Amino acid sequence: MEYRENKLPARLLSINEVARFLGVHSSTVRRWVKKGLLESYAIGLRHSLRFKQEDVLRFLSMSQDGSRRGVAPDDSPDREGAGTDRRE
Questions:
Q1: What does the alpha-carbon distance between residue 36 and residue 77 come to, in Å, rounded to a whole number?
Q2: Which long-range contacts (CB under 8 A, 24 or more apart) does 14-22 make?
Q3: What structural domains does the chain harbor?
Q4: Which pLDDT score, from 0 to 100, does residue 80 have?
Q5: How far apart are CA 73 and CA 88, in angstroms?
Q6: What pLDDT shows up at residue 73?
């Protein structure tokens, strides 16, 4: 885990920085925030989302523990019909 800790700057991170670090799209990070899986902080008048390094690392640790059990962050029980919500 020390290797990953050294890769993140010790400041508040933007959505794009978190997405790049976790290897996902920024929309995925926003979805995790809305689901309450990843803690964020709204700053400024535009309420830009920012993330603490320790929160991102905690989320990563929890998601890795879940993946060992076969549960990914998007595999929550509230996802009825996952992948079938296409708008036509």
A1: 14
A2: 14/48, 14/49, 14/50, 14/51, 15/49, 15/51, 17/51, 18/51, 18/56, 21/56, 22/56, 22/60
A3: 2-68 (1.10.1660.10)
A4: 43
A5: 27
A6: 63
The distance from CA 11 to its chain's CA centroid, rounded to whole angstroms, is 17
Return the amino acid letter for 31: R
Q: Does the global pTM surpass 0.85?
A: no
HSE, side-chain direction, 13 A CA sphere, residue 32: 26
Burial of 37 (0-12, 13-18, 19+ CB in 10 A): middle
* Alpha-carbon gap, residue 32 to 58, rounded angstroms: 13
| Contact criterion met (CB below 8 Å) for 26 and 15 | yes
> What pairs with residue 51 in β-bridges?
13
